[in-house]
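Take a careful look at the sequence and tokenised backbone pasted below. I need to know what the token row says about the fold.
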Amino acid sequence: MKNKEIAEIFQKTAALLEIKGENPYRIRAYQRAAQTIEALTTDVEELAKAGRLEKLPGIGKDLAQKILEILSTGTLSLYEELKKEVPQSLLLLLEVPGLGPKKVKVLYEKLGVDSIEKLEEVCKTHKVSRLPGFGVKTEQNILKGIKLLKEKRGRRPLGEVLPLAEEIVSILKRRSPVEKISIAGSIRRRKETVKDIDVLITSKNPLEVMKKVAELELVEEVIAFGETKTSVRLRQGIQMDVRVVKPESWGAALAYFTGSKAHNIRVRELALEKGLKINEYGVFKGEKRIAGRAEEEVYAAVGLPFIPPELREDRGEIEAALSGSLPDLVDYSDILGDGHVHSKYSDGTASLEEILKKAESLGLSWVAVCDHSQSLKVAGGLSVEELFEKKRAIERINKRASKTKLIFGAEVDILSDGSLDYPDEVLKEIEFVIAAIHTGFQQSEEQITSRILSALRNPFVHAIAHPTGRVLGEREAYAVNLSVMFEAAQKYGKALEINAYYKRLDLNDIHTRAAKEKGIPLIIGTDTHFIDQLEYLHYGVAVARRGWCEKKDILNTLNYEEFKKWLERVRKGGE
């Protein structure tokens, strides 16, 4: 039973309890448990075997028993009972971004809404806006949510699919006679959302490999079985295609099945210009294969250097390769810091000591602990007194820490009028101020942009967190003029965040490249709330690579002393 499946059972249990109007503390306990389990990078089943479930944040004896129940039976008796009491169709409505259990309950009881189609109908006929507590804006937001849901279906965040694909590759390496194995497709290109999983293999015993694929515990249905290609549907509902190719075709097949389609077309055009034919089997001159064993030789055959998978989108990479101006992309090994982590001081689940220990294990030089500011009560925002208590705690830890240091930071709210959530006399005492919008998402473009500009002009602000506010498949970006934001960030020497939480990835790759081209410093932050999320740094690096970023473009490549100097320079106005 995978972590995500257990998390979903807990999340749906919480939703059903809320629809029924049950105790809010009980509801919150299941929600928190779901978040904890979903954020784990280790298998919850392994933790259960080791008797360590109760060591997880928010998991007490009762919830630990419920996890064990799910692991042994595949479900939760409470969840099954609730499903009998609440119409199942209401759970589907909860998939609509922005539509919570309370509103679903009202829509069902007052308008008989029991399907997405019915919901769309009552919104378009303006019956929803006439309900108490809803209004025209809510109705419009529900329609936007339905649109987002339709777009989301069939595609999933990279962060949900990549770990699954990597687990399957690991299992096949151990259990089947593979020689070479690689994930291909949009996952290899690290697109923010992916439709399916592509795996490429070489083996002297293809049939045995495919038998192992079909026998995987994760497989729900074998769609097609063959010695060179097998397609399965995994229990998570996603399709996986596994192909076995000959060693002499490995490079050509890997390039072909990595894509993108537009990139492959451009490469084929270059081949044709040279009188060559290129496909998944190799590069041919007439009937003779002249390349195909390695990707590098495939590109070389058409006059190109190797192009990293993240760049293969036909966004100028062919032209850059031909002119010798491909970027030297920032590497995962270049990353020395994390620019955005939450601790127990606000809504994080880890102590400062736990954050330090995890960061040390990842080989980081520094971590910016940026807890929420005072007005964001829902996220445990820190009062000024609590803020300085945290500062003193960080100073004590840093005195005895050697390998890794903590940066005293704060994620400071940009309020609706553009002012910041702490006064300047407080802000100047914070080592790293990353300003963010968490409220007023429905304001006009002019208002939102004005708020961000106000923050960028403040001499004590270093960066803007998740600059567009989008959450993949759940919330659209707020209306902000990115060109104006970029100009201001460039003018004042401020950084913009690449938020590495896989449901945000904000800035996205397109915006990241635009910021990089303006010389705007970029900082990757995991926005960690659960300790294992520190490992999400690689998702931010993937965005940076897709955005053509080099080591010099990313502040996380600075060591502790270098980053501290950058922080000081910003405060001095770039002197």
About this structure: The domain at 257-322 is CATH 3.30.210.10 (Beta Polymerase; domain 3). The two ends are 55 Å apart (CA to CA). Residues 135-152 form the longest helix (18 residues). The chain has four domains: 1-83, 156-244, 257-322, 341-571.
